[in-house]
C-alpha cells in the first residue's frame, strides 16, 4: 500500500505544492515520507501483531478498573511518542504543522494494522476542538495535555434514547453555585445524565480522561429546550485538575455504567457512562462538574466543526479494513493451489493444481477489492487535501474547497463503510472455508468493518444529509461545483487514448445523477424526495468513485513508468478503473430509477402489512 | 412466519393435491399442520432459547471428548424424538412418508430458532443416501440406526488440499485383506487420509458416528486415479458394529485432528479428521475400516444424488437466518422511539419521538428484508415441491420437475446465501448501535449466515454449475423450461389488475437474460463465457426471484381475505413484490452487461498488476 500512498500524494495530489505555503514551508516530500515511514513502522511493530489479541481479550471491568491488554498500553504509548496526536498543530503548541493530507495518510497505517487498538483519533479531535473553541486556559490545560498523550479525550454525544436524534439529548447542566461564571476553566456547571457508545470512556491507559459532553442548560422555566438549539458543550474531566494541569486528587462524578460488547472492533473500550449519578460525589455534589466550552446553546455547532474530519477518519478506517483484507486475500490467492484452468477440452485432472489467483472469478473478487479499497483511499486523501485547501488556500480556493468538502463528506464516510465491507466479504470468499475461521484475519476485518455504517452518523443519516441538505444548499452550488470538477476530469480524459470510453460513461452518469436530483425534488415535498435518500446516496457515491477512478486512470497514463513495478502499478490502476466503470458504475441505473420516480412503496408501507 | 408458510403451502403450492398421490394418501392438510405445529414448538422450546449460548460456549476438546452444551444434547434428543430424522421415509422403515415440501417447511423452524445447534440434516442426508445406494444390510444397520437417532452421520468430502476441487481428493482406500469382498457390510477397505470441514465429526451426542467418506482406490499401478472418476464412497463408523447393529467395542481409526473455530455457526462441531493415522489401530491396522457403498468409482455420483436436497437445505438455512433477523428488527423498529416525521415545515422537536418503523428509510430496510427472505422461503418451498414432483409425479411431470430443479438448484443455494445475508446486515442497521452489540441477536445471525456462501459449493462453484452446465445441458432444455414456466406466470399476471406492470418488467428481464446467455456463449469459448459466471448467477437469481414474487403477487390477488390479518398479509405481499420489482430487478442491467460483452478485464488481469 505504501507505494500507492506515495503515488497518490506525489503524482496525483501533488503534495509538494503544499510546501509552498507558509504554514508548511519547513516541510518537503522527504519530511512527509519520514512521517509515513515512522507510522508504518510503529503500526507494523506495535499494532499489527496484536490485532487478533485485542479481539479475543476484550476490555473487562474488574469492579474498579477497566483492564486492557498490555499490547494496547504499549501501542497507545508508542503512538503518543510519535507526536502524531498533535501532528497538525502549530509548532508553538508542540505540533508539526503537518498537512492534514499527510496526517490522514500516516494514520491510515494504524487503521490497517489494528483499527480497534485506536490511534487517539478521539483525543486529537477533542483537543483540536478545544484549540478552536476553547479559552486560553482550556487550551493550555486540557488540549495540550491531550496532545502530549498525558491525558486522553472522548466525545460524549449519544444517549440511550438519543442516537441519530441528537436533539433529544437529555443530559442536564445547571449552574454550579452563584459563582459559576467566575470559574477560571469556563462557566462551571453540574451535569446529570447518561451517555451511550462512548469510546475510550473508561480505561487506565493514561492519567486522566477529558470528556467533551453535550448537555442542555434548562431555560428560565426550568425545562430543557427542545431541539438542537438547546445543546451546549462541556469539558468534564474524569479527575479534577488545577490551573497548572495537576490532578487535585478529586474524582469527578463520572461513573462507568457498563461496557458494550460488540460484534467486532473489540480492542476499543466502548461504554455507557453515568454523569452525576452520585457514585463519586464531588465537592458537595450533586452532579458531575463541567466547564462550558464556547457559548451556551452552541454545542452542536462546535462539534460539527470537527465532523468533516471525524467522518473522513471513519471513511479511512473502513477503507483500511478493506485494504487489510485485500492484501490478506491477495497473498492467500497467490499461494493456495486449487483447481485447474478452464480450457476448451475440459480440465486435465492429471495436471497439478494452480494457485487460485489464476482463476477469473478469483481475479474478479480481488479486482473488486482493489477497485473498492484503492478508490476509497484516493477519495479519502482527496477530501483530506480539501481540508488543507480550506485552511491554507486563497480565500476563493478555500471557500470552494469547503463547499466541495461539504458535498463529498457524506460519501467519504458512507461509501467505504459499505463497499470496503463488501471487500472484506470478498476477502473471506477468496479464502473459502479458511476465511470463515478465526485462524485467518479476514473474518475479523469484516466484523470490525460492520461498525462503520453505524457510528458517526448512520448510512441513513448521511443520505438525508446529502440529498436533504448538501445538494440543495445555496441553490445547489455544491452539486454544481462537483459537476464542474467532474466535467474537467472528463474533458482531460477525453483527450487521452484509452480513456474516452470511461470519460463518456462518466459524463452520462453525471447527467443521470443531476436529472435524478431534480426529479427527486420536483414536487418540493421533502417526504417524497427523501424516501429514497439511501439509494441516492449509493448512486452518488458510485458516480464520485467513477470520477476518482477516471482521475487515477489519468494519473496512471501520465506517470511514465521508470521501473517494471511502476509499469505494473499503472496497468493495475487502469484495470481497476475499467473494472469500476464496467462492473460497478452501471449499478446506478437501479438506484436512480427509484429516486427519479419518487417511488413511494416504502414510505406508503403500513406497519400491519409487514 | 407460520401464517406465511401455511399460505405458501396451501394457497400457492396447493400441498393438498399431494395427498391425492398414493404415497401421501394417509396425509391431509391437517396432518401437515400437526407436523409443523410440533416442529414449531420444539424449535421454540429447545432451540431458540439457546441460540446465543451455543455461540458463546463453543465445542471444545478436553483431550478425550468433544464437549457440547447440555442444551445441544437436549435439542438433538428432542429432534430425534419428533421423528423428523426419517420423516420422508417409508412407513415400513419407521418413516412418516411426509412430502419433502412439508419436511423442508418443518425444518425451517429449527433453522430459524438456532441454525447451528443443527437438526440432523447431515444424519438424514447420510441415511437417505444409504437407503438409495446401500445394500440391505447397510440400510438396516446403518441407515435405520441413524433415522432412530441412535447414531448420527457425517459427509466427508473436503480435504485440506481439496475443497472446491474434489477431483483432488487424496484419501486412499485399499482392499482389506484377501477376503475384503466377503465382508457382509460391503467390500471392506482400509482408508488413510485427512478430511476437512467435517460437521459433527466428533461429539458425544449419541452412541456412534457413521462417516460417509469419499476416497480413491488405487489403480493397478498403485497410483490414485486423477479426477472425479476415481472417487468411491465408503461407510466408516467411528465405532465398529456387528450385523445386529451392536457395538463390538472396537474403536475405528478415525481421530480428531482439530476443531475449526469459526466466525459464526459455532454451535456445530466442525472438525479436521484423520483416517487411519494409527491413533486407534483397529484389527491389526493400518487404516480405518470402511465399507464400499455402491460401485467403485461412483462415489461422487452417489453423493450428487443428495446434492439438490442438501443445497435446498443450505438455501433454507440462509433464508431462515434472514427471517430471524427480519423478525427481530421488525419487533425492534416497532418499539424503538427515535426522531420525528419529515414534514414540509421541518421537524418539531417539542413533539415526542416516533417509533422508527414510521421512517421511510427504516421501512425500506424492513421491506427489503421481507422481499429477500419471504421470496427466498417461497423459492425453497417451490424447489422442495419439485423434489416431490420428481419422486411422485407422472413420468413426464417428474422428468420436467427434475430438469427444472437442476436449473434452479444453484439459485436456491446461492441466492439466499447472498441476499438473506444482506438482510441480516440490514437487520443490524435497523437496530443502530444496539444491533452491533451481542446483547441483540442480529449480529449473530449475520455472522452465522456468512458461512452459507461458502459451504456446499461456493458461490463461484454454483455460478460455474449454472452457466457452465445447467443452462447449456440438453441444448438449453432446462433454461427453456424455466422460461416457459415464467412465461405462463407472466401470461396469467397480465390479465390481473395491477400486475401488468411487473409482468411486463419480468418479461423484459427474461428476454435480457436469454440474450445474455446467448452472448456469453457466442464464441463457444468456455473461458470467455465463464469469466463472468458470478454476475450471471446474480442476475439469474434476481430474475427467478422476480418471477417468484410475481407468483406471490398473483396468489395474494387471488386469495380473497377472510380477515383483516389476511387482507394485511395480501397488501404486504403486493408491496414486497413491488419493492422487489422496482428496487431489485433493475440491478440485472449491470450484471448482464458484463456477461453479454464477455468482459475480459478480470480474466486478463495479471498477478503483478494487483
From TrEMBL, chains A, B:
Q: Keywords, A to Z? A: FAD, Flavoprotein
Keyword Flavoprotein listed? The answer is yes
Q: Does the keyword Cell inner membrane apply?
A: no
> The Acyl-CoA dehydrogenase/oxidase C-terminal domain covers which part of the protein?
353-465
Q: Where is the Acetyl-CoA dehydrogenase-like C-terminal domain?
A: 483-605
Against Gene3D superfamilies, the record matches this protein to: Acyl-CoA dehydrogenase/oxidase, N-terminal domain (1.10.540.10), Butyryl-CoA Dehydrogenase, subunit A, domain 2 (2.40.110.10), Butyryl-CoA Dehydrogenase, subunit A, domain 3 (1.20.140.10)
In terms of superkingdom, the source organism counts as Bacteria
Cofactor(s) required for function per UniProt: FAD
For this protein, the parts annotated as crossing the membrane are none
Residue span(s) of domain Acyl-CoA dehydrogenase/oxidase N-terminal: 34-140
User: Which family does the UniProt entry place this protein in?
Assistant: Belongs to the acyl-CoA dehydrogenase family.
Q: Which PANTHER family match?
A: ACYL-COA DEHYDROGENASE, ACYL-COA DEHYDROGENASE-RELATED
| Protein name in UniProt | Acyl-CoA dehydrogenase
Q: Which organism is it from?
A: Ideonella azotifigens
Amino acid at each position: 500500500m505504501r507505494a500507492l500512498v506515495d503515488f497518490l500524494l506525489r503524482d496525483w495530489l501533488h503534495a509538494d505544492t503544499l510546501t509552498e505555503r507558509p504554514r508548511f514551508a519547513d516541510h518537503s516530500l522527504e519530511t512527509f515520507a519520514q512521517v509515513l515511514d515512522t507510522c508504518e513502522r510503529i503500526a507494523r511493530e506495535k499494532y499489527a501483531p496484536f490485532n487478533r489479541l485485542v479481539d479475543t481479550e476484550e476490555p473487562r471491568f474488574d469492579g474498579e478498573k477497566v483492564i486492557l491488554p498490555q499490547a494496547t498500553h504499549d501501542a497507545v504509548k508508542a503512538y503518543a511518542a510519535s507526536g502524531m496526536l498533535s501532528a497538525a498543530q502549530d509548532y508553538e503548541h508542540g505540533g508539526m504543522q503537518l498537512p492534514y493530507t499527510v496526517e490522514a495518510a500516516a494514520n491510515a497505517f494504524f487503521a490497517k494494522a489494528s483499527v480497534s487498538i485506536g490511534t487517539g483519533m478521539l483525543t486529537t479531535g477533542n483537543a483540536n476542538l478545544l484549540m478552536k473553541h476553547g479559552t486560553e486556559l482550556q487550551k493550555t490545560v486540557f488540549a495540550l495535555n491531550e496532545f502530549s498523550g498525558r491525558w486522553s479525550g472522548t466525545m460524549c454525544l449519544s444517549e440511550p434514547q438519543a442516537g441519530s436524534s441528537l436533539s433529544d439529548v437529555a443530559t442536564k447542566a445547571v449552574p454550579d453555585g452563584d459563582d459559576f461564571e467566575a470559574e477560571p476553566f469556563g462557566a462551571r456547571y453540574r451535569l446529570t445524565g447518561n451517555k451511550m457508545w462512548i469510546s475510550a470512556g473508561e480505561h487506565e491507559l493514561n492519567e486522566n480522561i477529558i470528556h467533551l459532553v453535550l448537555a442542555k442548560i434548562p431555560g428560565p422555566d426550568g425545562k430543557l429546550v427542545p431541539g438542537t438549539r438547546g445543546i451546549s458543550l462541556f469539558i468534564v474531566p474524569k479527575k479534577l485538575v488545577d490551573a497548572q494541569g495537576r490532578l487535585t486528587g478529586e474524582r469527578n462524578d463520572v461513573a462507568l455504567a457498563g461496557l458494550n460488547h460488540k460484534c467486532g472492533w473489540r480492542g476499543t473500550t466502548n461504554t455507557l457512562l453515568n454523569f452525576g449519578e452520585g457514585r463519586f460525589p464531588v465537592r458537595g455534589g450533586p452532579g458531575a462538574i463541567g466547564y462550558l466550552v464556547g457559548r451556551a446553546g452552541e454545542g452542536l455547532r462546535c462539534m460539527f466543526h470537527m465532523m468533516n474530519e471525524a467522518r473522513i477518519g471513519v471513511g479511512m478506517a473502513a477503507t483500511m479494513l478493506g485494504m487489510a483484507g485485500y492484501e490478506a486475500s491477495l497473498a492467500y490467492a497467490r499461494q493456495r493451489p486449487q483447481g485447474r484452468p478452464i480450457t476448451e477440452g475440459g480440465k486435465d485432472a492429471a495436471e497439478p493444481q494452480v494457485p487460485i489467483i489464476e482463476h477469473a472469478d478469483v481475479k474478479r473478487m480481488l479486482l473488486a477489492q482493489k477497485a473498492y479499497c484503492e478508490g476509497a483511499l484516493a477519495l479519502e486523501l482527496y477530501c483530506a487535501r480539501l481540508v488543507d485547501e480550506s485552511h491554507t488556500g486563497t480565500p476563493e480556493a478555500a471557500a470552494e474547497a469547503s463547499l466541495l468538502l461539504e458535498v463529498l463528506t457524506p460519501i467519504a464516510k458512507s461509501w467505504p463503510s459499505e463497499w470496503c465491507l463488501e471487500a472484506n466479504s470478498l476477502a473471506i470468499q477468496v479464502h473459502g472455508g479458511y476465511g470463515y475461521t478465526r485462524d485467518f484475519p479476514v473474518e475479523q476485518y469484516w466484523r470490525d468493518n460492520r461498525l462503520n455504517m453505524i457510528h458517526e452518523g448512520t448510512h441513513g443519516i448521511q443520505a438525508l444529509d446529502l440529498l436533504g441538505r448538501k445538494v440543495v444548499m445555496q441553490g445547489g452550488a455544491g452539486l454544481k461545483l462537483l459537476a464542474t470538477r467532474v466535467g474537467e476530469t472528463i474533458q482531460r480524459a477525453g483527450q487521452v487514448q484509452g480513456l474516452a470510453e470511461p470519460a463518456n460513461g462518466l459524463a452520462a452518469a453525471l447527467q443521470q445523477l443531476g436529472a435524478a436530483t431534480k426529479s427527486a425534488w420536483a414536487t418540493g415535498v421533502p417526504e417524497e424526495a427523501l424516501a429514497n435518500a439511501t439509494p441516492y446516496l449509493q448512486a452518488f457515491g458510485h458516480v464520485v468513485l467513477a470520477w476518482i477512478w477516471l482521475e487515477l486512470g489519468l494519473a496512471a497514463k501520465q506517470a511514465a513508468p521508470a521501473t517494471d513495478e511502476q509499469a505494473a502499478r499503472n496497468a493495475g490502476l487502469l484495470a481497476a478503473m475499467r473494472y469500476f466503470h464496467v462492473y460497478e458504475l452501471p449499478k446506478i441505473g437501479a438506484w436512480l430509477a427509484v429516486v427519479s420516480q419518487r417511488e413511494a412503496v416504502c414510505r406508503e408501507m403500513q406497519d400491519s402489512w409487514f
